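Posting for a labmate who doesn't have an account.
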Amino acid sequence: MIFRLGDGVEDILHKALPKAFVVTNGPEQIGGKFISGHVRWHADDLLYWDDCYRLAEYKSANSRRFNRLKKLGSYKQWDNGYWCQIQGYMGAINEQHDYDVEECVVIVVNKNDCEIYEEIVPFDKAAYEEIMERAEWLVKLESPPPPTMTASDYRVKNFMDEDDQGVYLGHLTPKQINCRNCRFSRRDFNDDDLKRGRWGCKKHRKVLTFDEQKTGCNDHEWIPELVPATLIDEDEMIYQRDDEQFQNGPDHIPSDRMAWLCRNGWVQDEALEIAEAFSGKVEIL
């Protein structure tokens, strides 16, 4: 019930606001795109009163987190990621829409007893510019950055299942192949007019549809940083794991088989033997 209340906070607070103050309207949230559509955003509400445009941001938290926010009295100190989020929204609205947003009204609801915390957060243009620089850097990375959290971090323990933890911490490949975890995939940054976040394939020299991206193909090879081993030959994609060497590729160890092996102690089992005998694939659910 507490989780369901958290999901409904945005709608509840939107309906409770005086309609005269609301510029945006529920499902028609103000939003936009950056970096050829690879970054998308939408804000909860845009308000206007006393000759000033204000962003409205709604969050919920359990009692422990909520009480920490009250004690700190600072949304930024409580969760810098959330603070950066609203700075990004305010800057994006100012840049892409005909408004001049000066501050954000933050409303945080205690999911356990519905107590409300409110704070006015001013727009920080320098922070917004730094956020956008970092966003562009992240989008243009050709491989995932190293993890910034340890296995004991509460976000890893509480918000990732065992498999997700293994992938994030570098012990497992993802369960399923797709174009976005293939080393041949590339983001298209030459789509400023359509702005739809296109992806392409370097090996097949084509723009990929979304359905193609989800499925992948038989030529899939893992982005090296997603393989729990050390890449020792970039030309042949040969990896070293303990005392063993192996090669990723359709003519060596296909990516789907590697995903199975690293979850099975790197031991060839009956499932792989059956798939090989019938020219089939293994699928991890």
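Reply:
Got it, the structure tokens are right above this. The CA atoms of residues 229 and 241 lie 5 Å apart.
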